Amino acid sequence: MLVIGWLFGLPVPLLLMFADSWNWVIMANVLLGINQGLAWSANVIMKIDIAGEKDRGLAMGLNEFAGYLAVGVIAFLTGWIATEFGLRPYPFYLGIGLAVAGLAMSIIFVKDTLPWVKLEVKSSKQKRSDESLFWKTSWKDRNLFAVTQSGLATNFKDGMAWGVFPLFLVASGLSLAQTGVVVAIYPVFWGAFQIVTGKLSDYTGRKQMLVAGMVVQGLSLLMFTLLSEFYQFVIVASLLGIGTAMVYPTFLTAVADLVHPDDRAESVGVFRLWRDSGYAFGAIFAGIVADMIGLSAAIYITGIIAVGSGIYIGLRMNALNKPVSKRFSSS
Questions:
Q1: CA-CA-CA-CA dihedral for 74, 49, 200, 303, to nearest 10
Q2: Helix (H), strand (E), coil (C) string for 40-87
Q3: Helices (DSSP H) in the chain: which residue ranges?
Q4: Of 200, 190, 212, which is closest to residue 310 (Cα–Cα)?
Q5: For the residues of 212-235, what is the DSSP string, one character each?
Q6: What's the pLDDT score for residue 230?
Q7: How many CB atoms lie within 10 A of CB 316?
Q8: What was the pLDDT predicted at 55?
């Protein structure tokens, strides 16, 4: 899966480098999506396989932190290269190098993690599912559904925020430079704090971290609509990033905790399908609501959805009340 994913990624920078029509750009995005779906999913599953129950949160925190750090660093480098040498072809040389490096490392250095899964099966307390994992993860299992709906709500918020926040901040009187700072603060805190929150979930328990993270996100959005000063927006954007960091690595570890090791890959894949669909749903929702009612309404309603999602987890999720570290030590 990892190798095939990188094979799909290889043509992406070349297509963009030589694109002479919009169709080339669309095709590059399609291949990039397949690359992400295969390679990133395999990456996540393999880390969960290797880390084991005790350190899953830490493994996912490191994984998500590394991913978003790379996005930021490469975005900066490609922007600098484009400024110094032009939009094409030089920025895409970096993409070609990374794609080749990813494929080479996957082939040469990465070992398959199936032996870890077979070892974990022997001690797993979860039973192998005899029903459709798609429906079980999506709806039927109350605990898995609690995680899935909160993942969708989180990315729903991001789909809204990426479109609405810049417009709302400019309308609130901030300069373009100040708007850029506020918009950037959110993913910086989101990415950096995942190392801490991922490992912390190994001790607090997944449910507690998910409830707290969803509520922090929701309250941050509700506060956002009441602000007017630059420093206030910076503080609340930081809190929003911390709230997202609390839930993002915890989602994946919670799904892994709730299913049999042999069911884990498919269950995580189904969860990621619903979680990442939140980007599209949130963006469409934000556009419609902002047009009909206003920008503040789009932010406010999304905040209510996030708080409601956290409350739902608190009321309905019951499998992970006990911190993982205590379950591990007691066993």
A1: 60
A2: HHHHHHHHHHHHCCCCHHHHHHHHHHHHHHHHHHHHHHHHHHHHHHCC
A3: 2-9, 11-18, 22-35, 41-51, 56-85, 90-108, 114-121, 133-135, 142-171, 176-204, 206-224, 230-258, 264-292, 295-316, 324-330
A4: 212
A5: HHHHHHHHHHHHHTT--SHHHHHH
A6: 95
A7: 12
A8: 86
The residues of the chain scoring below 70 in pLDDT are 319-331
Rounded to whole angstroms, the Cα distance separating 50 from 274 reads 25
Task: Please report the pLDDT score of residue 140 as a whole number.
Answer: 92
The sign of the dihedral angle between the CA atoms of 228, 232, 233, 236 is negative
* Separation between Cα atoms, residue 203 and residue 104, nearest integer Å: 36
Nearest to 261 by CA among 112, 83, 94, 46: 46
Q: Where are the domains of the chain?
A: 2-119, 131-330
- Please name which of 12, 63, 74, 14 lies closest in space to residue 40, comparing C-alpha atoms: 63
Q: In this structure, which amino acid lies at residue 131? A: E
Please tell me the number of Cα atoms within 13 Å of 187 on its side-chain side. 18
Q: CA 219 to CA 306: how far, in whole Å?
A: 8
CA–CA dist 314, 210 (Å, integer):
9
Rounded to 10 degrees, the C-alpha dihedral 186/188/192/198 comes to: 30
Count the alpha carbons within 13 Å of 275 in the hemisphere toward its beta carbon: 24
Separation CA 116–CA 136 (nearest Å): 24
CA distances from 208 to 104, 257, 324 (A): 40, 14, 11
Place of tokens 């590394």: 66
pLDDT for 319 equals 53
Architecture of the domain whose range is 131-330: Up-down Bundle (1.20)
Asked if 154 contacts 247 with a C-beta cutoff of 8 angstroms, the reply is yes
In this prediction the pTM is 0.86
Output the CA–CA distances (angstroms, integers) from residue 178 to 217, 234, 262, in the order listed: 21, 9, 48
